[in-house]
Amino acid sequence: MGGAGAAAAAAAKRRREQEEERMTAYGKGDLDGWEFKIVRSVGNRFKKREVLDGLCREEATAGWEMIEKLDNSRIRFKRRTDRRVADPQMPIDPYRTHVGISEGGLVALILGVIAFGMGVLFLLLEVWK
Q1: Spatial distance between the Cα atoms of 39 and 113, rounded to a whole number of angstroms
Q2: Residue 99: left if φ>0, alpha if ψ -120 to 50, beta else—which one?
Q3: 76 near 67, Cβ under 8 Å?
Q4: Residue 23: CB partners within 8 Å, gap ≥ 6?
Q5: I need a labelling partner for 90 at 20 to 30 A (CA). Which of 73, 78, 97, 123 fits?
Q6: Strand 74-80 relative to strand 65-71, pairing
């Protein structure tokens, strides 16, 4: 079961990456003086307007402008390359591409909760013997 889940997750990740490649095709003129990034979050974190607005405010401190919301877990930004000179003074990592818990962190959390639950269950079964 775990192998099938991992394969499904990998396939979903490949589909998202292919979709991003199609959606973010740039012409030569689009890139002159601009840089782009996609900020991701596990789950539908950007569905909440206050979370989206907070992210945009934080990114704006480093000169990033929201181009589009790809979905509730991916937002695309752009900024002028001349804004890089101020990067060392930024309160955030201007090149961050992820907010919140990472996919690996989420998996570790879920596995930890499962292990903890199994441990509690094991102890309860031992006590009831």
Answers
A1: 27
A2: beta
A3: yes
A4: 70, 76
A5: 73
A6: antiparallel
Read off the tokens for 37: 């990034």
Tokens representing residue 124 in the block? 């309860």
Which two structure tokens, joined as six digits, stand for 123? 């102890």
Q: What is the pLDDT along the chain (129 residues), one digit of tens a residue?
A: 556 666 766 676 677 666 766 666 677 777 789 999 999 998 889 999 999 999 999 999 999 999 999 999 999 999 999 999 999 999 889 999 998 766 666 667 677 888 888 888 888 888 887
Strands (E) in the chain, as ranges, are: 34-40, 65-71, 74-80
Q: Is 108 helix (H, G, I), strand (E, B) or coil?
A: helix
Instruction: Report the alpha-carbon distance of residue 34 to residue 56 in Å, rounded.
Output: 18
As given in the structure block, the two tokens for residue 116 are 């903890």
74-80 sheet: strands from edge to edge: 34-40, 74-80, 65-71
